[in-house]
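WARN no homologs supplied; continuing
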Amino acid sequence: MQFEVRSINTRYKESQIDNVQVSYKANTESRSVNGNGNFNLSADEYEGNESIATLEQMAKQHLLDEVPNLNFEVRSINTRYSDDEVVSVQISYTTRNDNRTVSFNGNFELSDKEYEENKAMERLEEMAEEIFIEEVNAE
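OK structure emitted
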């Protein structure tokens, strides 16, 4: 997954940096997963970590740290046919945490057989989470 810092909001108190909010976007090359997030750093945490490359690594870690707090929800199931036969099933999902510092959308495809074996909504949402984590960790 590719991470890109979109903005850095530096907040001051008494002419000194108080804290910094880093906003980022991330997506897979195929755009099967895309979204955005943000995290806060204290002045001490920000000092020495100002480079965009470092902040992008911190964004990835922020997303991984938030995975246990994410709520995965299947949004649609698109069944594709050819000659009256199911060819594939595309599952689209969304995920975010309660405080909305992370919000992503994604999709994945299953064969007819894979879908039949895993079509319970709870299982599809578990699969979405598993695939999401794989994508975040992919180099």
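Helices lie at 43-46, 52-66, 112-118, 121-137.
OK
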